[in-house]
Amino acid sequence: MHEEKTILLVEDEALIAVIEKETLKKHGFNVVLAHSGEKAIEAVHNTPGIDLILMDINLGKNKMDGTEAAETIVKERDIPVLFLSSYTQAEVVQKAEKITSYGYVVKDSGETVLITSIKMAFKLHEAHQKVKEGAEQFRAITNTAIDGFWVVDIEGHILDINEAYCLMTGYSREELLKMSIPDLDAIEDEAMARQHMEKLIENGSDRFESKHRCKDGQVIDVEVSTILIQEQRCLVFIQDITKRKRAEEKERASERKYRIVADNTYDWEYWLDPQERFIYCSPSCERVTGYKAEEFLADPDLYDRIVHPDHRTDFVAHKKGARHACRTDEMEFRIIRSDGTERWIGHACQAVYDDNGLFTGIRGSNRDITDRKQREEVIRESKLQLEMVIKASNTGLWDWDLRTNKVHFSPEWKRQIGYEEREISNDFSEWQNRVHPDDLERAQSTVKIFLENPYPDFENEYRFRHKNGSYRWILAKASVLTDENGNPLRMLGSHLDITERKKTEEELRYTTTRLEALWDITKLVDADFKTICDHILSEIVQMTKSEYGFFGFISEDEFTMTIYSWSGDAMKDCSTVDKPQHFPISEAGVWAEAIRKRTPFVMNDYTIYHEAKKGCPDGHVIITNLLVIPIFSGDRIVSVTAVANKASVYDDDDISQITAFVGAVHAIIDRKLAEDKIKSLLAEKELLLKETHHRVKNNMNTIIALLALQSDVLKEPSAIAAMHDAQSRIQSMMVLYDKLYLSDDFRKISTQEYLTSLIDQIVRNFPNRGLVTIKKQIDDLALDAKILSNLGIILNEILTNAMKHAFIGKEHGVIVVYLSFKGNHVTLMLHDNGVGIPESVNIANSTGFGMQLIGILTEQLEGTIRLERQNGTKFILDFDT
């Protein structure tokens, strides 16, 4: 009946609202959306036909919350309000209960709980309406009722009676008013009548079946319902159930057929009569609950008692609601078995009516769903672990609504730049205002190009301002959601702080530059000293991107500097006559401050005043900025390096670069020391390379985790399968990177070690791995990492396909992986004894991505691959190294 119901959904989170709306529509409800309490009130005023309001409580900062909106609405309109909120605090729930009594559902309780709560709210509202109408209609009903009606005192004397009962029994009103209950009841005597009256006084109401005598001597079956209305009076409703009883007799005649079927079902089947007593209970109840069918038949309350206390109230309400439902009602709950263990039950029941529309009981079915629930719990824990992985990997998440320009930033996103959750609003400007001015135009342009023509693997690197004023390097990755016309709606992505990686890359670049320069100089060890100095200075000028420079040595007493090299441009541009080579330190100008104060001297604006300046001779080049660095050997200054006229400012990186380089150059004087220094720097480079491999592996782990998270929210099987295949391919590369990380040789890896680990890793991902025997015959040889990468991806594609499809319908299978070397020729063979690959599939013309990838990688290896179909499927790859 709910197909025509209209629900006003009040939710400020757009994504949650869309998901909840789709859920409600799926169950046949019309949905009107409001994103604030004010909009909800406006919708109630302007939208006719709203049957129920599903109200969030927190509707945004500085806005009317859900309880305030609900309180305003219910004062004006009689509409049921069901709260849907993440809050579980007692004071919030109590506040909601004071406004409306139609229910409170905690978000993420599940679709079943939400829909069931909505249905119960509708029923509760209908009940309230009936109570209102009942008071007005009571008198009319009693006067026009089809069923009999009495007013009796506690002694059983009839004080009032309606016309229907007179017609039912054939007595006149005057005759009946002179009678008492025992005069009419064909079963009860005075003692039984007193027992019923005592029960009525104790409980306030009672219902039972009996038999009444008619004036003509006929006995009819009746259902008697009594309600105590005053201390001395009660209302009695008498329904003639003679026809129903005959129908029940007919049903019992067919019960044997039903029992044959029900007794042999796997699920626990049962049938309750109108008083909720078991008419039938299938033997499977013992498997599910540990109690025998006879125990349920003998003790009707046993059913309610085995329901877990946490679910018992809901279950009792569910049973009562099922009496009036016109369709199957479902719910899930826990029970406590006879042995004390807990099991989850999937329950469904439906009211049963006879041919005349009379309610004859409830037909129900219970299934043990504990295994399913345990699997769901594993999935829930996996999601939680994934969230922990994302947090541990310092990955921030963001969701940009392109229509509203609002962006949801995750707590980790804000933490990365030093902010608390509440300190940053959900607005695009929060991102825009923090991007480094030098990076903003490029970053925005990258986003604009992506949105105009979305492509896979979107990445954007930029500097981002931290709360403390510093800038952090950020790597942003994203994907876009579009409407049916391909127009972008939302952009979702991750936010990773890569500052340390950037520092590592910069250190690696500096180290590489120094190593290359040192290596060039080592080739000049046998050259004259002037040539070596000229080359050293040339490298320093290039490192710092300066225009000019000089390189000189300090006397042992540190009184004099002798310049051994001027940069070529300085000699060309400077027209000073008789350029000096020897400079007394005490008489020298500002450049000598580095020696006098024994620390690097930086002057990024050469026009400013300095007391040590002595001016430049005629024809000297114009200086704009200056950096002078003293080089120490122990406590003594042994040389001085100076550079000038860099386009940007000189900084600590320039000082570190020159100090490290020139310090190393001094060691070249002794060949042995030079060789040791180079080995040390090469070891540093190898350490950085290993660190890079390690970071790549961590990034791959993050990618796999993100792919797994994405696959969890996908619905399309082909999309989910593609995600899983992508994870598998990345894992094959991860195994290779792992071996590279542990290897002493970054170029070649053991085939036996790599492929054995890769095969085990692939097989471990499949639930049917226990049914498949893997035989590995792999010759060991060191192969180039690039070749092994291609070989690993091909192996991954073939082995994954075999594990997925080769053994469908088979109880056991065997896969043989064989790798051999003959000279420089390599043969890889994978053979399974499965069902075989279809004749229509081949590598040359396959449209499947996996087969195409195998073909492409085979071409890169300059090899051949063939497919044989005898005794299963066999792939044979041949290539030369």
List keywords for this structure.
six-stranded antiparallel beta sheet; alpha+beta; five-stranded parallel beta sheet; 881 residues; 28 helices; 33 strands; elongated
Summary?
By secondary structure, this protein is α+β, with helices and mostly antiparallel strands.
Structure description:
With 881 residues, the chain is of the alpha+beta class. It is built from 28 helices and 33 strands. α2 (37-46) runs parallel beside α3 (66-76), α19 packs parallel to α23 and α26 runs parallel beside α27 (785-805). The longest helix has 43 residues, at 671-713.
Radius of gyration: 43 Å
How much helicity do the residues have?
A: 40-55%
Which stretches are low in confidence, meaning pLDDT under 50 for 5 or more residues running? 574-579
The coarse overall form would be: elongated
Summarize model confidence as the mean pLDDT.
82
Strand order of the largest sheet: 23-22-21-26-25-24
Distance from N terminus to C terminus (CA atoms, Å) equals 72 Å
Strands, total number: 33
Strand residue percentage: 15-25%
Structural class: alpha+beta
User: Treating each run of at least 4 consecutive H or I residues as one helix, how many helices?
Assistant: 28
The biggest beta sheet reads: 6 strands, antiparallel
